[in-house]
Design goal:
Layout (H helix, E strand, L loop, with lengths): L6 E5 L6 H12 L2 E4 H14 L8 H9 L3 E6 L2 E6 L2 E2 L1 H4 L2 H10 L3 H12 L7 E5 L2 H5 L5 E6 L2 H14 L6 H17 L12 E4 L5 H22 L1
Length: 232
């Protein structure tokens, strides 16, 4: 039964490193991976392609989310994302798509359309779920919950470096403001606001490498398994 499949939920703000850590963790455990943020970005990409982004008609956007033809494939430590059979991995990372997906995530029709789609990723041997409400809304019964965060300054620096490496023109001060604004929207939306689950483990990645964060989570998972064995 799906509820018996183990889940590690990793939530946190954008730029905290949860995407990279979740991918590495899924590879280390040999589990399935859910990048929930990619689903919302796919809705944003589809809305932009259909010129619906400016109107933000909730019913139309909800239908886009319901009919989303999405696909994911892990290849060489990276996730390929497909929309209607077309790879859109690069498009998902644009600032326009990121900003729009944050607004779409606050719309009840869009969120409702994606809930069951996200829960369907819970398949054997296990699932690493990366997002903003994995441990609070989508998988409240997750076996292990992590809230991964980092300072706004560090997250802005990481995003700045990523964009510069791609040859894009970018302003660090503007990135800082945009991240602050996105955090505020995510934390203060009425539906499923970004917050740690009451039983989550907080990890600040500001001064930690990916390997160090991964090591902490794997240790927590081993401790959790031992605890379950003792209780049984």
């Amino acid at each position: 039964m799906p509820e018996k499949v183990p889940v590690i939920a990793i939530d946190g703000p954008g730029g905290s490193g949860k995407g990279t850590v979740s991918l590495r963790l899924a590879e280390a455990l040999g589990w399935n991976l859910l990048d929930s943020g990619a689903l919302y970005r796919l809705v944003a990409v589809a809305a932009l392609k259909q010129a619906l982004a400016s109107t933000c008609d909730e019913s139309q956007l909800g239908r886009i989310a319901s009919n989303l033809q999405a696909g994911f494939a892990v290849e060489h430590h990276a996730v390929k994302v497909l929309l209607n059979g077309e790879e859109v991995s690069q498009e998902l990372r644009s600032e326009e798509v990121s900003a729009l997906s944050s607004r779409l995530a606050a719309l009840p029709a869009v969120r409702a359309a994606l809930v069951d789609r996200q829960r369907a990723f819970r398949q054997l041997p296990g699932l690493v779920a990366d997002g903003r409400d994995m441990g609070t809304v989508i998988f409240p019964d997750a076996n292990l919950k992590i809230y991964l965060t980092a300072s706004v300054e560090e997250r802005a620096q990481r995003r700045y470096k990523q964009l510069k490496e791609k040859g894009e023109s970018v302003n660090l001060s503007r990135l800082f403001r945009e991240i602050e604004e996105r955090d505020y929207r995510d934390q203060n939306r009425l539906l499923a606001p970004l917050k740690p689950a009451f039983d989550s483990h907080l990890i600040d990645s500001s001064e930690l490498s990916v390997d160090e964060v991964l090591g902490k989570i794997l240790k927590l998972w081993e401790e959790h398994k031992v605890g379950d064995w003792v209780k049984d």
